[in-house]
Amino acid sequence: PMIQEEEVRDLLAQLDTHKSMGPDGIHPRVLKELADVLSKPPPIIFQPSWLIGEVPLDWRLADVVPIYKKGCREDPGNYRPVSLTSVPGKVMEQVILSAIMKHMQENQVI
Fold first, then answer.
1. For the chain, which residues make up each domain, given as ranges?
2. pLDDT tens digits, residue range 7-21?
3. Residue 94 has pLDDT above 90, yes or no
4. 3-state SS string over the chain?
């Protein structure tokens, strides 16, 4: 299916600005505030990625950050790893998920 600019704009406008940015340094607040302008280029990137089944290398990278759970802060076992990935990559994931879910519903797979 063709990736629609409106769908990308809606997803960008819904981004949580309190989330962290990934290794690409693109903060969700920037994408959200500029959703009208930035919704044009992603379909150009997302569509070929969807068709060939490959994700841009930068979107496969993650910054792994230790998040404290509880107990002694000096004990490494009291931390859990959280992977911070690319926000545009997450938007593309949502576009693909939406297309798959729509296909499954239209074909009564679920």
1. 5-106
2. 999 999 999 999 999
3. yes
4. CCCCHHHHHHHHHCCCCCCCCCCCCCCHHHHHHCHHHHCCHHHHHHHHHHHHCCCCHHHHCEEEEEEECCCCCCCHHHEEEEEEECHHHHHHHHHHHHHHHHHHHHCCCC
